[in-house]
Amino acid sequence: MGDYPSSRSENATASDSGVIGRHTRGAGTGVSPSSHDEPPFGGGGGALPKKARFGMEAGFKGLSVAAGAMVLVIIVAIAIFLISKAVPAIRADNENFLTFNQWFPNETEPRFGIAVLAFGTLLTSIIALLVAVPIALGIALFLSHYAPRRLATPLGFVIDLLAAVPSVVFGLWGRDVFMEPVREFSTWLNKYFSWIPIFGGDGPFGRSVLLGSLVLAIMVLPIVTSLSREVFRQTPGMNEEAALALGATKWEMIRTAVLPYGKPGVIAAVMLGLGRALGETIALAMTLGIVFNISFNIIENGGNSIAANIANAFGEANETGRGALIASGLVLFAITLVVNMAARAIIYRRREFRDSAA
Amino acid sequence: MSLLDREAAGVVMTPDNIRTKRLPLGINLGIAAAGLLIAAAVVYGFGIGNYVLVVVLGVVFYLIGLQVVAGRIEGPRTARDRMWKTLIYAACVLAILPLASVVWTLVSKGVERLDGNFFGTSMNNIGARDPEGGAYHAIIGTLEQVGIATLIAVPLGVLGAIYLVEYGRGRFANTVRFFVDVMTGIPSIVAGLFILSFWVLIVSPWFNNGTPRFSGFAASLALTVLMLPTIVRSTEEMLRLVPGPLREGAYALGVPQWKTILKVVLPTALPGIVTGVMLAVARAAGETAPVLLVAGGAASINFNPFEGGQQSLALFVYQQAGDASRYAPARAWTAALTLVAIVLILTIAAKLLARRNSLSK
Amino acid sequence: MAKRIEASNVSSYYGSFKAIDSVSMTVEPKTITALIGPSGCGKSTFLRSVNRMHEVLPGARIEGSLTIDDQNIYDPDVDVTAVRRMIGMVFQRPNPFPTMSIYENVVAGLKLNGVKKKSVLDDAAEQSLKSANLWNEVKDRLNRPGAGLSGGQQQRLCIARTIAVEPQVVLMDEPCSALDPISTLAIEDLMFKLKDRFTIIIVTHNMQQAARVSDKTGFFSIDKTGDPGRLIEYDDTQKIFSNPTEKKTEDYITGRFG
């Protein structure tokens, strides 16, 4: 997966190198024999054997179709079952589920709303992307166009490994190690920049939106990096050469040929990163302050998110409480579904464009 | 006649002089030193921060100075080129720092409890004052849950991929392919909630006297949901790499399609499929959120994934990190180190396997 | 405008592989020089060495000296981008920027050089497209994607893009090999026209083309695969095609090998 040893040097080897792309879709498809179940019996001169109606062929095909359909079934089932548990809880809610900004679902008169959680989810994700995307694009360009191959391969490998590190480890590191520098940095920001509202407040600082977002940024980084790197690598070598032959510097070549070509792919990569950030649970549960209020202050203890709240509140939840958490999860599911579908739609359109151009 | 002779003053289109001045390395280093010195003077002079601020400000001053000086000597285009190059290199350094910190803390804090006791005992009867206690039960839980999830997800995923590559045509197949991709982005907590509402709260009470039953098996189901799209996707890519003539050769011999797939296509693609499965397993082993919701968690050893709560390594890290005992952090870090070791070994092995795979070259 | 190019003992390498071995030739201003020879003989490599595009490939390097009006372009203090601005290049396959319109493609080089004024850009676009014999075909759809044109039109668009920055030398690397005969003729007509302003070097597989368009012809060859390519003979096109000095050239011209 994603580990294509084909390199830039191969891509650009000759002046006659064509459109470079991974034709993953070309090689082994489309061969379908006239399907008969058993080879014709030797000898005899009779008619060819009839196509059996229920044979291994039909059975195997049926199984594989069922397995393929399973994916759709699961996605629909997720929606159905989440709704079935969420609706009773939302009915029991004495406040407006969308706008109320507290979370007391376990009381005899449950009151809860998703406003704070949705806000916190968006805030942490957006800050994380603001930090991660420029750095990720920088690394992707470094890997695709700047680094010598000796360095690009191991560094790309390390970035892929970073993606494999479990989120609970990042959460643990964020809380035990990274919180201290962030606290000091927050205090410093507060001392000199408290006139900017997001850096205001009287403390305590540290277990804040800033900490959660930065940890999240580190986790999103590898996704955006590896997807963008793939996209940048696919820039047709002949377009890069065209720019260079016009007298472009390396950066101008990147701006003229590489970035415009990669733009849709980068947008998709960023959206996939957003999907990951929105759904991240454990790392945020361990680094955010889990407070129920809507505040743009990013350095004071506080912050919350849909997913982190589920992890935190699940232990003490009664039946309505669980329903309320499932309802919030349903909202998260809907948001991530939309984001992911949009990202994939961009990638699919781009792939068609590229294949038809090739 | 050149249209540029009369226009665009100041733009030298085709310079007669192709020579250029380069920024000498000495000046470059000089700017860096000056930047740092000015930063230090500003920071300590006004008393507004410590060495970190000096470095940050120093880098900013260096970049500005470089841009100005290089712009004078080399011209704006070369200077801009240099600036972006510097920024891109800086991005790499910036990304390596947290990674190095994670690795360093994992190792330095993780070795503290890296002993036989940790791997041989559970947390049964371990109070807040007991320094012992281990993750034996959690390791058992992770192995069983991921094992069962793999047993379910692999056949399902491989069959799904076979459908997409060998049989799938038209709109339905495209829909399936699209949603496989979309499904890779479903948050793990949502998968956990799904299994919670579907299996734990609705199905499991049927055979548990009406009360929900949290179990390792429920965790396996949640992990299956997460592994399935990854396996379908990677298997699909591998199956597509199997050369068409190989299939045609079998068809020409009168071998039916299903046998061709099982006997020719799958074996050819097997190394690649195994790689994809290993990556999916590595990802599943590190999941915390779904296990937290449906496995129930337990302090003692439970070999039975179908009855009673079960622990997992990732969940163990989370719970120990939230534990008030002063011995808990050490246990959390050692468990984290173990978890990362398992995940990374699987990932690296998978990547090395992929590199040796003749199909994907 | 046009300049004189002098190569002396140019050898180009890909890593440790020597692609061409000590080529020396002089190209006079405002002439068309054709480079012919069998595949893999190093003629494209030599062409790419002339505007320092050869070194774009990892591990590629060059020995010897290449001067353009007595300035060695391989001197250490030479600005590569200035060299490439002075020596434009048209590639084997038409390669307009896929994300840009026809107009943007033509003015891409000017924009890189900091020309921002709309009137200058418009003027340059029109002039270059006219010079490239493309203006009449595209003047109504300048804002459509360049990739939507036919292959021959795309190649003329690339030529327009190259000459828009007013180079002094234009290198063409088999510019017609991906085109049909009619488009090929259009490009050849264009070359005659451009000869008044530029020094042109063209690599071609097509000997008729070389005979038709060029003033001088250089014949490259290799002894066997793995050996470096050499310049066997370099002379007036007339002479090369009627009465070559070297036996090898004659064999190649008459189709006895290659």
What does the largest sheet of chain A look like? Answer: 2 strands, antiparallel
Strand order of the largest sheet of chain A: 1-2
Shape of chain C: globular
The CATH topology of the domain at 5-95 and 169-254 in chain C, please?
A: Rossmann fold
Q: How confident overall, as mean pLDDT of chain C?
A: 89
Helical content of chain A stands at: 55-70%
> Which assembly state applies to the chains in this document?
heterotrimer
CATH superfamily of chain A: MetI-like
Helix content of chain C: 25-40%
Protein name (chain C): Phosphate ABC transporter ATP-binding protein (PhoT family)
InterPro entries (chain C): AAA+_ATPase, ABC_transporter-like_ATP-bd, ABC_transporter-like_CS, P-loop_NTPase, PstB-like
Pfam families (chain C): ABC_tran (PF00005)
GO molecular function (chain C): ATP binding; ATP hydrolysis activity; phosphate transmembrane transporter activity
What does this structure look like?
The complex is a heterotrimer of chains A (358), B (361) and C (258). Chain A has 358 residues and is an all-alpha fold. Chain A is built from 11 helices and 2 strands, in the order ααββααααααααα. In chain A, 65% of the residues lie in helices and 1% in strands. Chain A has a two-stranded antiparallel ribbon with strand order 1-2. In chain A, a hairpin with a 6-residue loop joins β1 (103-104) and β2. In chain A, α8 (250-279) packs antiparallel against α11 (319-357). Helices cover 71% and strands 0% of the residues of chain B. Chain B has helices spanning 25-46, 51-74, 76-110, 116-120, 136-167, 170-183, 188-203, 216-241, 244-252, 257-285, 289-294, 313-321, 328-356. The model of chain B is unreliable at 1-12 (pLDDT under 50). Chain C contains 10 helices and 10 strands. Chain C has a domain at 5-95 and 169-254: 3-Layer(aba) Sandwich (Rossmann fold), CATH 3.40.50.300. In chain C, α3 (102-112) packs parallel to α6 (151-164), α4 packs across α6 and α6 (151-164) packs parallel to α7 (181-194). Chain C has helices spanning 43-50, 80-86, 102-112, 118-131, 135-138, 151-164, 181-194, 207-213, 237-242, 247-253, and strands spanning 5-14, 17-27, 32-36, 60-68, 71-72, 87-90, 169-173, 199-203, 216-221, 230-236. Chains in contact: A-B, A-C, B-C. The interface between A and B is large, with 111 and 122 residues.
